[in-house]
Each structure stands twice: as C-alpha cells, then as structure tokens.
C-alpha cells in the first residue's frame, strides 16, 4: 500500500438507543425507541424496532401500533453528550487529527505506527476501544477520502470495521450504492442527476467533472473528487466560527393559537439563543423569527439592530415586532425558530452613537448566568415563560441536541 495515511469515519450504531442500554442493560436485545418533540415521534430506534416497521420520524401512535411490545423512552441529550465526549477522547488517543462531526460521528486521520502496523488493525482497535471503554457499538470505515470513508462505514454496519484503499475495491463499493447515500444528495439533486443517467455512486464518480459541477455546483465537484479518491475536503479538528446561531424547534404538545403562549415560546427560545451567543462570545446584528403553523402556512419577521447586542431586553424589544410579522391570527403555531446573524466578537462590538450605557443590563445578565450555572438551567428566567411551566418541569426539555457544543453539524 503506497499511502501511509487514510481518512477514517466512525458512526455509533443506534447511538441514542445504545446510550440508553449503557445505563440500563434490561434494554439490550429489546425493541427500543427514543422519542423527541415532547414525545410526539420516534427520533431513534433499535434494529429490533426497525424490523417491526418503525422508522425515524414515525409518530408515536403509529409506532405503538406497529410495535406494541416496544419500549419508548424520552431522549436525554445530556447523557448522550457524556458518552459522545468519551468516544471523542478515545478517538483522539488513536489519531493526531479528529473532527467532531456530530454527536455520534467522527472523522479522523488514520496514520500507521509501529504499534498499529495495518489500517485494519487501526479500524478494529478503535472499534474495540470504544466498545470496552464507553459501552457503545460503533462502525469504523477507512478510505482515501472522507466521502469514501463514510460510504464504507455505512456498508459495514452494524459493528463493522472495514478498510477500502485501492481503486478496484472502491469501484466495486460505489457500484452497489445509490447516489442518494452520499450526504447532501437527495430530493432535487438526486432527480437532477437521474436525468443524466447518474443513479449510483459509481455513475457519479465516472461522470464528466464539468457536468457534475454544472449540476451540483462546487460542492458537487468536491464530492466527485472525493469519490475518485482525492481528499479535497479536509478534516477540521476545530469548528469554524459560526455565521449564524439559531434556537427553536417543535412546540409539540404545547402547540397553540394563543398569542400569550406563542409569546412565551418566543421568550424561551430567545433566552436559549442568548445562552449560545454568550457561550461563543459574540453579539448579533440581525434577528429573524420564523413560525410555522398546523395548516401548512408559515410567517417570518426580521430586523436589523441599531447596534449588535446579546442583551435580553434589547433583543426582546427587537423580537416582538418580528413575531407580530410572523403571527397568523387564529392559526395553531407548531414550530418556531429564532436566528441570529451578522455575528461579531463581543469584545469588538461596535457601539451606537446614542446608545445608553449598558452596565446595569450587563451586570444583570452576568448575574443571571452565574445563578443558572450554579443552581440549574432556567432557575432564573423571564416570567413571560410561565404559560410553559409544564415544559420547564419536564427534564427532557431542559437540554437539546443543539445544546451539544463543538460538533460540526447542527
């Protein structure tokens, strides 16, 4: 083998279910589903439940009908993050460069050493170390590029360890995989490629590069290079600075047409957004409020701030007219997202010429942050969120996947 370095991809098998099984061995071998959106749908399922016909996104009432013997649990992202960080520690012991791609996925540089004489030994060693030290089954794939590595690990599931590093073996793998298995190719992109007879990964790899770029832009061209074994998408050990931050999601069982309740959701999501702004030490110069409704309609409001800020009172004053623009009278709101853009470092934020001093507001914000860190998240929160008391009382709603920081995607 000419190369002494390959790209690795690790994907935990049924991660949320596996994490639940780590702390409760009673769940091993049983059909298990993890619920999200205040228990409205299945966001992860065991292989046993999948065989019963339950898929990701299946509403809970359909899941119970298809798998009445299943065990359904509320998600616990705080616990999942603990195990995710443990997996990250293991991978960093095996590689000089690791990308924390998502809560259950990692890309890494696989380098041969005297102790690890083959790439297959590296793949099997990492898989074994994660299993023994974390208790989570994972699949490892190694290849010449990250796109190939992910396809290889997908082909080796569950609990596999596979290395494909020569062109003939790559072509055999690509010929068996539909092009939709490549991350980022689905829907309209898949249809666009199909019109040109590109249906498998191998079809895409063999297509004219200029055609691929015209159909899928520069992103598609990068995939073309990667499928042909040229690693043009680097491993990112550190997450690049955010261009935007967002908080929100499904309102679940608290969906409502009551403007007081909808305003309470605005405040809840704003307080979560401010947490993230302060964590990353940035302030925002543009705020967007997006709301979708049960009847399929949606509304959006956006404002540019006079001066970038992360202070609650100023952002709430800006968010209220945005909500009014997004609100549809009488319609039941089901989702809401707040998006902060035009982010600048907090230490270099420009000040408005006539802005009043914000020492008191910032002192209150700092105090609120310290109290919540010491006593518990949302121990201090705006009284406007009182209509959502049941949401705050349910610990499953206290931490979400987007609150797991440091990973590359969502």
In short:
With 410 residues, this protein is α+β, with helices and mostly antiparallel strands.
Mean pLDDT: 93
The overall strand count is: 12
Question: What integer value in Å does the Rg equal?
Answer: 24 Å
Question: Helix and strand string, N-terminal first?
Answer: EHEEHHEHEEHEHEHHHHEHEEHEHH
- What percent of residues adopt helix (DSSP H or I)? 40-55%
Largest sheet: 5 strands, mixed
CATH class of the largest domain: Alpha Beta
Could you say which structural class the secondary elements and strand pairing correspond to?
Answer: alpha+beta
Total helical segments: 14
What ranges have pLDDT less than 50 throughout 5 or more consecutive residues?
none
Q: How many separate structural domains?
A: 3
Structural description of this entry:
The chain is an alpha+beta fold. It folds into three domains: 1-145, Reverse transcriptase/Diguanylate cyclase domain (Alpha-Beta Plaits), CATH 3.30.70; 166-237, 5' to 3' exonuclease, C-terminal subdomain (DNA polymerase, domain 1), CATH 1.10.150.20; 245-403, 2-Layer Sandwich (Dna Ligase, domain 1), CATH 3.30.1490. Helix content is 40%, strand content 21%. The strands form three sheets. The chain has a five-stranded mixed beta sheet. A four-stranded antiparallel beta sheet has the order 9-12-10-11, covered by helices on one side. The protein has a three-stranded mixed beta sheet with strand order 3-2-4. Helix 11 (259-279) packs across helix 12 (312-326). The protein is globular and about 65 Å long. It starts with a strand and ends in a 17-residue tail after the last helix.
């Amino acid at each position: 083998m000419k190369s002494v370095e390959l790209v690795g991809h690790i994907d935990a098998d049924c991660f949320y279910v596996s994490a639940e099984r780590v702390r409760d061995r009673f769940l091993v071998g049983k059909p298990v589903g993890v619920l999200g959106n205040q228990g409205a749908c299945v966001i992860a399922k065991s292989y046993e439940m999948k065989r019963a016909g339950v898929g990701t996104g299946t509403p809970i009432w359909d899941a119970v009908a298809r798998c009445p013997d299943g065990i359904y649990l509320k998600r616990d992202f705080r616990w999942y993050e603990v195990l995710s960080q443990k997996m990250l520690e293991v991978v960093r012991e095996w590689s000089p460069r690791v990308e924390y791609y998502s809560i259950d996925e990692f890309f890494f540089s696989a380098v041969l050493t005297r102790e690890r004489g083959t790439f297959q030994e590296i793949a099997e060693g990492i898989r074994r170390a994660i299993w023994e030290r974390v208790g989570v089954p994972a699949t490892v794939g190694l290849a010449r590029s990250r796109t190939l590595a992910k396809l290889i690990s997908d082909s080796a599931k569950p609990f596999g360890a596979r290395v494909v590093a020569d062109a003939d073996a790559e072509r055999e793998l690509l010929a068996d995989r539909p092009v939709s298995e490549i991350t980022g190719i689905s829907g309209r992109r898949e249809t666009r490629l199909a019109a040109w007879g590109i249906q498998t990964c191998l079809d895409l790899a063999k297509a004219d590069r200029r055609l691929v770029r015209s159909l899928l832009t520069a992103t598609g061209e990068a995939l073309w290079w990667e499928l042909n074994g040229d690693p043009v998408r680097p491993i990112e050990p550190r997450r690049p600075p955010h261009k935007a931050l967002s908080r929100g999601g499904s309102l679940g069982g608290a969906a409502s047409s009551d403007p007081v309740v909808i305003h309470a959701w605005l405040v809840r999501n704003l307080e979560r957004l401010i947490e993230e702004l302060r964590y990353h030490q940035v302030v925002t110069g543009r705020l967007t409020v997006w709301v979708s409704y049960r009847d399929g309609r949606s509304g959006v409001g956006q404002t540019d701030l006079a001066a970038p800020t992360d202070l609650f009172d100023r952002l709430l004053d800006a968010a209220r007219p945005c909500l009014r623009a997004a609100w549809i009278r009488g319609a039941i709101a089901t989702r809401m997202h707040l998006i902060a853009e035009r982010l600048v470092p907090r230490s270099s934020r420009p000040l408005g010429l006539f802005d009043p001093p914000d020492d008191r507001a910032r002192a209150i914000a700092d105090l609120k942050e310290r109290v919540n860190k010491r006593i518990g998240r949302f121990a201090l929160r705006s009284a406007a969120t009182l209509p959502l008391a049941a949401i705050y009382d349910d610990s499953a709603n206290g931490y979400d996947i987007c609150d797991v920081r440091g990973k590359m995607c969502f």
